[in-house]
Amino acid sequence: MKGNGNVQFIQPELKPQNTSVKIIEKLKDTNVNLNLVEDLEPGPSYKMKFISDDKRARFVKEVLHAHNKLREHHGTDPLDLEKKLMDDAQSYADECAKGGGIVPRRQVSNYGENIWGLTTNASDFEDFTGGRPVEKWYSEVKKYKFGAEPVDNSAGHLTQLLWSKSKYLGVGMAANDNGQLFVVCEYYPPGNYLGEYPTNVKPLKKPLTEKDLKEIGISSIFINQITDGSPNKTTAKPGSAEELRQNYTLQFHNEKRLLHPVAPLVYNEELESLAKDWAETLLKEGKFYHRPNNKYGENIFFYTASFYLEDDDVIRKSLNAWYNEIEAYVDLFDKEPSIEQLTSGTPTGHFTQVVWKGTTEVGLGVARKDSDESHLVVVVANYAPPGNILGRFRENVFPPIEWKKNVTSNTGRNGAS
């Protein structure tokens, strides 16, 4: 299965200096402060992917809510939206989208700033929520030592997000015809001043529950639920990139499996080592095929993008690509498909392996080849026991639970009439 980071879109002309006015009208139920900070010159018009005012307004609300929920749990006052900050954030997001990357500002900003981007496609974009960039920034919590001055800026997004002296927020989002999406948040007064971190970046005061994180669209990986003796426990150093990659692998696999009547997977580092080795081999050879004589199940994904993709985005895209093969499997549920049905037409083997009931363990490896022009990522996942065994599909691959509910509900209504 392969992905392409260069999805083309037909884009109308937009005038970013007018955008926030329309959005403000749709945010009447949100506390928006107007014209409290210094005026900015309006930016020029840019060609970009069309984003409706309704989508922008919903996105702004989600970003604001995610910020304030996290600030609340850290004992910090909420932020209010501010029109000029919104104008500036939107204008700069447009500039980044037009330039295909983080572009130099034409003038020094007086605001604090968090920026995030990813390469996306049409289906990803429709599912995009304001919690995703906030999740990325908040994930730096594992690098930060509360109550002390930082030794570097590795958690700078987190500290600006939580900075107690910051009172106002502006949010901008823009996408270009290369499928790149940029999110810019502006803060006033700005944060991240040396000597002021302990008093402005407060530790967690109230525990975050899974319900809290689900409400704002943030992963539950920030709650340490792994205890001694748990089958999910690995040798990865807590808070390391390795642990995060393992957690993302489980999270995104089990989110898909949760849709079906099958148990969640646990992580296996031996499978990870095998997968990592094969991903590196494929990257070196520039070919994409399954490991010969592999006794484990295996899914492969590769993706090219014009800028660097974090592990969570790569793993999320992999699982979405594999799971989306369900569309070609619809007529095969509750049947024992033949080899001809399984190998002709659109592939379905990635999907069936992800949701295979008999599979209990997974390990995943990522290999990268980066240059100034492009970034190639290869993902390999290995599974044990393996799935996709001929003659056992009907007992291992089930339709989504929601489909069964809908059929039962519709049958009940018809019977009553």
From TrEMBL:
InterPro entries in the record: Allrgn_V5/Tpx1_CS, CAP_dom, CAP_sf, CRISP-related, SCP_GAPR1-like, V5_allergen-like
SMART domains referenced in this protein's UniProt entry, alphabetically: SCP (SM00198)
CDD domains for this protein: CAP_GAPR1-like
GO cellular component, one term: extracellular region
One Pfam family this sequence matches: CAP
Record Gene3D superfamilies: CAP (3.40.33.10)
SCP domain sequence ranges: 58-195, 244-391
Protein's name in the database: Golgi-associated plant pathogenesis-related protein 1
Lineage of producing organism: Eukaryota, Metazoa, Ecdysozoa, Arthropoda, Hexapoda
